[in-house]
Amino acid sequence: MTIDATGTLEPEDVVDVGTQVAGKILSFGYDREQRVIDYGSRVDAGTVLAQIDDTLYAADVEQNKAQTQVADASLDRARAEVSQAKSTLILAQRNWERAQKLGPGPALSQSDFDACKATYENALAGMAVARASVNQAEAGLTQARAALDRSLHYLNYCTITSPVQGVIIDRRVNIGQTVVSNLNAPSLFLIARDLDRMQIWVAVNEADIGKIQAGQPVSFTVDAFPEEQFSGIVEKIRLNAAMTQNVVTYTVEIRIVNPDERLLPYLTANVQFEVDRREKALCVPNRALTWQPSTEQIDPDFRHIESLQNASMPPAWTALSREDSSSKKQHRLWIAKGTYVTPIQVQAGISDGVLTTVSGTSLKTV
Hints:
By secondary structure, this protein is α+β, with helices and mostly antiparallel strands. The chain has three helices and 19 strands. Strands 1-10-14-12-11-15 form a six-stranded antiparallel β-barrel. Strand 18 and strand 19 (about 355-360) form a beta hairpin. Helix 1 packs antiparallel against helix 2 (about 110-155). The longest helix is centred in the N-terminal third of the chain and has 48 residues, at about 55-100.
């Protein structure tokens, strides 16, 4: 018993490579075969995919290097001024200590005493200013280095490299094209990480989703290879259902292997989920279970269907009538007997929409 659905082949992992800077595409890199990067190119992690014009970003780097050197020199000057202020403070402190011991009097006039005190206090203030200048210079140097690091990163962003090993599915830019980076990074390349493992995303109706579970075997075909049948395994059922024209569907992910990479991304897959299996089962076409012969085709012993309720009906019909009322899955199947057909009672099992399995004691006597 199977459930039929349609899905799309998807790479197992797709990386959208963009850019954080704006500029003109100057050139493309080279793939493993040393060919210019293009659709289908195989690349390794770190492979250069494209080069963006970096003239403006290189100029910013040089400017920020110069500003960093200026900030570094300012810090050296501020530290030197601290040393100078420290020496001045030491001399002023010693003079003030001597003045305090002598005090205003014959040996030291009041004006000289006041001058020593003022000089010492000015030296203290000068020391504080010098230390503040060092802190300011250190902050300026940190700011300049951050600006330099930022400009270096932007310069590096001009070289677009592959973050993973894979295959280029889509190249979305050309040489000479200008890319503009704003709130959303523009997409340049689409890379499939590995095409020897892929997925099928299948939309399954809500009426059938309860019959599907992880690990369930799946078979599918694609129009590119109509004579071949491929297999896979249900990996997961996504819970974010979608509604289209009041029909609710769930996306089921199917894991498949593609060692020769014959199956290409985005092919349409005609999928059959194997819900149940019967080995060596007897099957009949579904139409055979509903087919009704004309009176002339029926064996004479079974022609008078309207007499099934009469006591004079053939023993075979009596058994058939009794079995019919015992189960809703009981069906009457007509079997050829010479030039006529005769009925037997069978029980219908699972169906794939075309064939249905049947069983019953009557089959043993046929």
